[in-house]
Design a protein that fits this description.
The complex is a heterodimer of chains A (about 350) and B (about 180). Chain A contains 10 helices and 12 strands. With about 350 residues, chain A is α+β, with helices and mostly antiparallel strands. The longest helix of chain A has 21 residues, at about 35-55. The N and C termini of chain A lie far apart (about 90 Å). Helix content of chain B is about 75%, strand content about 0%. Chain B is globular. Classes of the chains: A alpha+beta (about 350), B mainly alpha (about 180). The interface between A and B is large, with 55 and 62 residues.
């Protein structure tokens, strides 16, 4: 039979455990005895057992294990190459981030939002909003975005933001129209299920069956650290890399662009998982139409504060339209001569 | 079969109890997932230090304990009372379950817990089951759902856990002495 002291100890321990488990209170008594601490541990353990037994499906555990094993295998093979490694960051010129790989990366991020923006926990409030965004992103309609690259040292005159037009259809086709780096005029990049192509200011359209061919041909190996090749692969493994929170609805600031109605506002913050590529945006803000799930504005906050590097990539929705089928093909560009 | 494969087999064998250990002191599912992931990554890096004559489960949970203590320093949502002493006790409970002769897998072993839940008085069982099936998991919504006050709900949950712990201990002890 327990004496009064033991009963008192159990009462305090039970209350601490209960307050934490059922009130989310982290208040803690000034002093607990070793017995009280063990009692608290026992009650927490029971709750942990209950949740693992009744709440945590095997599929979730399998997913967690696979995710960890993928990270472990990657860490051993160094297959994920950061786009802008610190090793050579200081030697990069401003022109580097204006090159086409950045635009392509931006395009792929929008195209693949359905891949990397996932929520596997049905209790999250953001779940429904994410599902709508994923559906809208994979729908076979044409959407046009203004993409703006903000350099880290935006105060300098030479480092003004650079803009491009991005057209996307469904989850796989895109076209980017961007200002040429050296010549006056625009360059075009495109990609659809048939492959990728590039149209310089002067000269024929260059096309290839894949990203690797394009990189070899046009970049002459200068951009080995570019994320394009790794990006789609990496994104598939990043489905849980972000913690997504649904914030109060908000009217996004669109600057001089046409104002829009109140949007759902989501914030995705990268989790502190070791082994993630360091070029991943640390935080992503998404504003989406409540009814359709169309992304109206998306801001990728990059981690770099170094000069000559990007600080932010912003996407602003311009219009939804019906573009011709060959818009995403090299044939869709006038005066196109294709070199395979 | 390379080292990755062997490690994966070991992890699969111990993942459930590892998550029990983590979820016992980490309430937030996403933080628990992060701790789980980080534990496996650290375990992989430290695998050469693992003494093969010792059981793998406690070694893995020892790493998880360090990850949890590290996470606690950064996150105030974790219970401040959690320390190495409390974690050691939790580990001993997990090991007690792992050694338990009833069933080969954790789900089989946990059948004893299911039996204990089924044996709870109805108000306690309803409180526990509603809590586990709750979508948002807040006590207020669970109390509303059950049509009871928040204080009553907390009392029922608290007493239910005490009964479940005592019941499970009895069953584990009975199985240990069974022929």
């Amino acid at each position: 039979m327990k004496n009064d002291d033991e009963s008192f100890e159990e009462g305090l321990a039970d209350r601490v455990a209960s307050d934490w488990l059922d009130d989310s209170s982290t208040a803690s008594p000034d002093h607990v005895t070793p017995d009280q601490k063990r009692r608290i541990a026992d009650l927490l353990w029971i709750q942990g057992l209950l949740e693992t037994t009744f709440q945590s499906p095997e599929t979730l555990r399998e997913h967690q294990i696979q995710r960890a094993m993928a990270s472990i295998r990657d860490s051993g093979t160094a297959s994920v190459v950061p786009a802008t490694s610190s090793h050579n960051a200081n030697h990069r010129s401003r022109s580097k981030w204006r090159q086409w790989t950045v635009w392509v990366t931006a395009a792929v991020l929008v195209l693949s939002v359905g891949i990397w923006l996932q929520s596997r926990d049905p209790r999250r409030q953001a779940f429904a909003a994410i599902e709508r965004i994923r559906e809208a992103a994979s729908a076979p309609s044409d959407r046009e975005y203004l993409v703006t690259l903000f350099p880290a040292d935006a105060n300098e005159i030479k480092s003004r933001p650079v803009e491009a037009q991005l057209f996307v259809r469904g989850g796989e086709a895109f076209v980017v129209k961007a200002p040429a780096l050296l010549k006056s005029g625009d360059v075009w990049f495109g990609h659809d299920r048939n492959g990728a192509w590039f149209k310089p200011v002067i000269g024929p359209v260059l096309s290839g069956s894949g990203a690797l061919l394009m990189q070899q041909r046009f970049m002459q190996g200068r951009e080995q650290g570019a994320p394009f090749l790794q990006l789609t692969t990496v994104l598939e493994r990043l489905s849980d890399a972000y913690r997504v929170t649904l914030l109060p609805d908000e009217v996004p600031d669109r600057g001089s662009l046409k104002a829009v109605a109140t949007c759902q506002h989501l914030r995705a913050v990268v989790r502190p998982i070791k082994g993630l590529p360091d070029w991943l945006p640390g935080e992503i803000e998404i504003y989406a139409e409540r009814e359709t799930g169309t992304i109206i504005k998306m801001v990728l906050h990059l981690n770099s504060h170094e000069p000559n590097r990007l600080k932010r990539i912003q996407f602003d929705f311009i219009a939804q339209s019906q573009l011709p089928d060959d818009w995403y093909r090299p044939e869709g560009r006038s005066d196109s001569r294709t070199i395979d | 079969m390379d080292a990755h494969d062997v490690f994966e087999i070991l992890i699969r064998e111990h993942a459930d109890l590892l998550m029990v250990f983590i979820r016992s002191v980490v309430r937030d599912q996403t933080i628990a997932d992060d701790v789980f992931q980080e534990t496996l990554l650290v375990a992989w890096r430290r695998l050469p230090d693992y003494d093969r004559t010792r059981p793998f489960g406690p070694w893995l949970r020892g790493i998880a304990g360090n990850v949890i203590l590290s996470a606690m320093r950064q996150n105030k949502r974790l219970l401040p009372i959690v320390d190495s002493e409390l974690l050691d006790h939790l580990d001993s409970r997990c090991e007690q379950l792992a050694r338990h002769r009833r069933g080969d897998t954790l789900p089989e072993k946990l059948e004893a817990l299911r039996e204990c839940v089924r044996a709870l008085p109805e108000p306690y069982r309803a409180a526990i089951e509603t809590r586990l099936n709750s979508v948002d998991g807040t006590s207020i919504s669970i109390a509303d759902q059950l049509g009871i006050s928040l204080e009553t709900l907390k009392k029922r949950l608290q007493r239910a856990r005490v009964r479940l712990f005592d019941c499970l201990q009895r069953k584990l002890a009975t199985a240990e002495v069974a022929p």
